[in-house]
User: Fold this.
Amino acid sequence: MAYYLAMEKGKPGDLYLIGSEQIYTIKECLEMLINLSLVKDKIQYQIDQSRVRPTELNILVGKFDKFHNLTGWKPEIPFQETLKSILDYWREFVEKGYY
Assistant:
C-alpha cells in the first residue's frame, strides 16, 4: 500500500522514506533471521573487526514523517513478520530450483 500511495500522491523526483519508528541493529536483524532458520542450532557468526569501519555509525535512523504527513500511511505489518515472509519467499525460490 505504501508504494501505491507513493505513486499516487508523491511528487516525481522527491525522496520518500518508507519505514517505521522501530529501530533494529544489523545484529538484531541477523538474530531474528537465525531464529527463523530451520537449522538455527547450527548457525554461528562472528564479527570480522577488520571489516568494521572506524567511523561506523552505531545508529542510523530514517524518518518517514514526510511520507506519513503526505499520505497518512503507517506500518501495519510487524518487522519480524516481514523478515519471515522474505525468508519463506527465498526458501520457495530455492526449492523450485530457480537459484
User: Anything to note?
Assistant: Residues 2-47+59-95 form one domain.
